[in-house]
From TrEMBL:
SUPFAM superfamilies: Homeodomain-like (SSF46689)
DNA-binding region(s) from the entry: 48-67
Residues covered by region (Disordered): 1-24
Lineage of source species: Bacteria, Bacillati, Actinomycetota, Actinomycetes, Kitasatosporales
Protein name: TetR family transcriptional regulator
Species assigned in the record: Streptomyces mutabilis
Domain HTH tetR-type per the UniProt entry, residue ranges: 25-85
Length: 219
């Protein structure tokens, strides 16, 4: 019997599930990859649960046990996309002189990836907008991954202060709102870049914005 991560009975809160087996993880990956493919082709409306089940070669009932709705599914897809981006960024981190520079570069690289697949970006953004309390676990995982990406770009802070975490939240909100503005045609990429850079300057007032030391030297 499947024990998918997204399964649960309550509408607002779902009990944590046991860790997935390797077979279940592989099935989950197939589901998420199928969802991304469908969204890339036709956006939010193209992601239909029956088609996802057929494309990922799982039973429809199994799909619903993993993901109760397509909103759950698309928010989980966003988390998966962010995990892939995070892996890429760790292999090739931003090279800005200050933490604010590095975070801005990181978020614009993320934006560049979304630009390449605008229908997928639109589908994931719509899902986040539609998400209600029942999708809180998935939304929380998206937020935690975004926070981790930003903190890594800042310099991998082990114990960020409350002020630094507040700045990260504001930067996250700005990133998400500029994504929606760009997708709806209300903001250009140039304006997105300006807004993200402006928000990232908050890092400078938290004590995490000093230039990165790149070599030795005495005082």
């Amino acid at each position: 019997m499947d024990n998918p991560e997204a399964a649960g009975s309550g509408p607002a809160h779902r009990s944590p599930a046991p860790p997935l087996t390797e077979r279940q993880r592989a099935r989950r990956r197939r589901i998420l990859h199928a969802t991304a493919r469908l969204a890339c082709r036709g956006g939010f409306e193209a992601v239909q649960m029956r088609e996802v089940a057929e494309s990922s070669e799982v039973a429809l009932g199994t799909l619903y046990r993993y993901f109760p709705s397509k909103v759950h599914l698309l928010v989980a897809t966003m988390q998966d996309q962010l995990e892939q981006l995070h892996g890429t960024l760790r292999k090739s981190p931003p090279a800005g002189e200050t933490a604010a520079d590095r975070v801005a570069q990181t978020l614009m690289r993320a934006f560049g990836a979304l630009q390449r697949e605008p229908r997928l970006a639109e589908a994931m953004a719509r899902a986040l907008t539609f998400a209600d309390r029942s999708v809180s676990p998935e939304v929380d995982r998206v937020s935690r991954r975004t926070t981790a990406i930003i903190l890594d770009a800042m310099g991998g802070l082990d114990r960020p202060t409350a002020e630094q975490l507040s700045a990260v939240r504001v930067i996250e909100h700005t990133w998400h709102s500029t994504l929606i503005a760009w997708l709806s045609g209300r903001a250009s990429i140039a304006q997105v870049g300006v807004d993200i850079e402006t928000a990232c300057r908050l890092i400078d007032v938290t004590g995490a914005g000093e230039p990165r030391v790149t070599g030795g030297g005495g005082a």
